[in-house]
Amino acid sequence: MSVILKVDNVKAHYGSIEALKGVSLEVQEGEIVTVIGANGAGKSTLMKCIAGVMPKSDGTISYHGTDITRTGSDKIVKMGIALVPEGRQIFSELSVMENLKMGAYTRSRKEDLSSDYDLIFGIFPRLKERLSQKGGSLSGGEQQMLAVGRALMSRPKLLLIDELSMGLAPVLVESLFEAIANINKSGTTILLVEQDANLALQFSDRAYVIETGTVALSGSSKELANDDKVREIYLGG
């Protein structure tokens, strides 16, 4: 397996506050890698830095060996990285179909998108039933499905998912994680930031624990799920 993403000693600030204090991690092609940690640990900041929507104050980020540290977010999408943002951020006034089309904005206008729709409706059949509904009228779970589907429309090689489970019922969260596992099996590498550490470790290959802007622990998801410190702090003992 080759390294698809390498984050090396990345630092980021919100004004005078240092949100990331030198985070390093890597993702191999074909993996599901999760980043867990408490609220405010810097997880979402890390995702924004990788996606090019937040400036880095130090360190480097490379994708397939190419330095993307200073690359704009639009070019990063074209290179094959898509972000499912925290809080979903769908276009509430647009229909489900229009939201999906927005996800394909980097693709050629002449390109046939029908196979992409088929893939997404195969993963999330509920979206097909609601094609003409406005995004804002969907349930929280359906909006999350739409946010993932919209990201898939750019045909990413690396999918960044920020807080998949946020605000959703546990039964729905599990089915979303199963959908993410299927997306991974179809050839998309996934980096997942997640508060539900139990499920994140269950569905991922490797994991990083971020505490106050630094990587405190890393290893296989199975190892971290059995680590006493991780169990005590993140897995409810």
Question: Quick one: CATH class?
Answer: Alpha Beta
- What order do the SSEs take from the amino end to the carboxyl end, as H and E? EEEHEEHEHHHHEHEHEEHH
Name given to the CATH architecture: 3-Layer(aba) Sandwich
Quickly count the domains: 1
What is the rounded Rg? 17 Å
Question: Strands across the major sheet, in which order?
Answer: 6-7-8-3-9-10
Terminal CA distance? 34 Å
- Poorly predicted regions are none
Number of helices: 10
The number of E-state strands comes to: 10
What's the shape?
A: globular
What is the CATH superfamily classification?
P-loop containing nucleotide triphosphate hydrolases
Sheet with the most strands?
6 strands, mixed
Strand composition percent: 25-35%
Calculate the mean pLDDT score and round it: 94
Q: What is the fold named in CATH at topology level?
A: Rossmann fold
Helical residue percent band = 25-40%
Main structural class: alpha/beta
